[in-house]
Amino acid sequence: QVQLVESGGGLVQAGGSLGLSCAASGNIFSIKDMAWYRQAPGKQRELVATITSGGSTNYAVSVKGRFTISRDNAKNTVSLQMNSLKPEDTAVYHCYAKVMPLVPRVDYVYWGQGTQVTVSS
Predict the structure, then answer these.
(1) Is-contact 48 67, C-beta < 8 A?
(2) What is the largest CA-CA distance in the chain?
(3) According to the model, what pLDDT value does residue 100 have?
(4) Distance (Å) of CA 85 to CA 13, 34, 37, 98
(5) Helix-strand-coil percent breakdown of the chain, rounded to 5?
């Protein structure tokens, strides 16, 4: 029905930058909240950043000032620009979106399969 596909992950040295993108496609009427989560092996999935349909943002303390979340409502995409990367940022990054499909018109939560970000020291 609806798919979220992430792109942009890779291997970066500490202090470097990386940009992630997530594209939603399929049976979409509208998209409400969007977010980025990350999960390292053996650890809980943690919220990195959120953005509402109106553009309001929130960030985890650990990334505030370094990461920027943005969205393009016309293209159904959300991005995460990551600067000043640290080894502790290493994780699988997952895109999240609350979507109202064309049918049925009720909100559902969708997750991307994730993209690996590895920061070396």
Answers:
(1) yes
(2) 47
(3) 93
(4) 8, 22, 16, 28
(5) 0, 60, 35
**How many residues are there in the chain?**
121
Q: What distance, in Å, lies between the first and last C-alpha atoms of the chain?
A: 41
* Residue 52 half-sphere exposure toward CB, CA atoms < 13 A: 5
Give the Å distances, CA to CA, from 5 to 9, 22, 41: 12, 5, 21
CA separation, residue 51 to residues 1, 56, 69, 75, 121 (Å): 23, 5, 7, 15, 30
Q: How far is it, in rounded angstroms, from Cα 2 to Cα 45?
A: 22
Cα separation, 80 vs 22, whole angstroms: 9
Give the tens place of pLDDT for each residue, 82-111. Answer: 999 999 999 999 999 999 988 888 999 999
Q: At 87, phi and psi to the nearest 5? A: -55, -35
**C-alpha 68, offset from chain centre:** 10
How many other CB atoms are found less than 10 A from the CB of residue 101? 17
* Residue linked to tokens 């953005």: 51
